[in-house]
Give the backbone structure.
Amino acid sequence: MDTDRAVPADAVVDPVAEPALRAHARIDLDALRSNVAALRAHAPGAAFMAVLKADGYGHGMVPCARAARQAGAEWLGVATPQEALALRAAGLGGRVLCWLWTPGGPWQECVEADIDVTVSARWALDAVVAAARAAGRTARVQLKIDAGLGRNGAQPADWPDLTRAARAAERAGAIRVTGVWSHFSCADEPDHPSIARELAVFRTALDQADDAGLAPEVRHLANSPGTLTLPEAHFDLVRPGVAMYGISPVPQIGGPESFGLRPVMTLAAALASVKRVPGNHGVSYGHTYVTPGETTLALVPLGYADGVPRHASGTGPVLVAGKWRTVAGRVAMDQFVVDLGGDVAAPGDEAVLFGPGDSGEPTAEDWARACGTIAYEIVTRVGPRVPRVYVGEQA
Ligand SMILES: *Cc1c(COP(=O)(O)O)cnc(C)c1O
């Protein structure tokens, strides 16, 4: 029988009252608030947009949004309109920007919910103007230029036309252009030649928006690396995501502590099994690990369904019984094994996959290196089966 508890992903769980949790992601909201303060100090002249897409990078969108607001974030930023509407549904007021739209999206709902929507192309401008008319109110629109990333945003060649059309819609009372913005391609590689190029494209786009008669409240370009390393990119507002969760966006330059940041998420599990096995015992699917001698194996009840990368097979670091161990053999859907050598542990003892790192545990950055990815992906992929346990929640 499955003895896992059915704990909803966004439940507030007290780990002391819930000692039987298989696994949990502990989310330190005091750390998040202090990270917001540290980031604001890096960009003192700019407003702050807390980026909360993808369930707050896996940390839980709504509790993190509340904590960011408590720390003074004037803006909340998300990718999809559904995420923006979910913030409103949870009672978060104030300014919210979303930027990843597809035709047929909930334009009118967002206009009615007072969400700032991003427009990168004429079809989207037409959609938001129609939605504003249907809603009988003025839509708040931010125009996005592609300064070189090659994803969303208007091409510079299409920008003068888009800004003129937006100004016409503004004069007609359908919209108000509240922002002009873009997104860097390589801000995490300081001195990359694209940075100066994209800044220049952005400045030209601002001049052209001005020529079209637009007067946006906020002009913005800086993600986490831009906030921490490119003061010339701060403009009116910065949009940090990963750094707010205490992860360095430029680990080659320094860890989170070097920027005054502290990791927010700790991922831990209770050992589900500890047993002695003889030497030459295969471990997990495919027997890619075989015990070198008689030893103790501990079973960690987290697997790739919970977001532990299968690429961590044979490489992922875990703190168990006071030492770093390495995932022995393959990561399975729900579980993986570590070899404790001769060390002693008991079922229920804690295995810490990653955390701030100051109690001897690995960090999300260590997992990223072990798996050939970035720490963004390590925290964001922690799945809904892992309850988030919030620490430092304020009313
Ligand atoms: C995700 C995202 C951010 C935040 O990026 P980080 O590198 O996590 O700081 C900012 N702006 C946009 C448009 C994004 O999509």
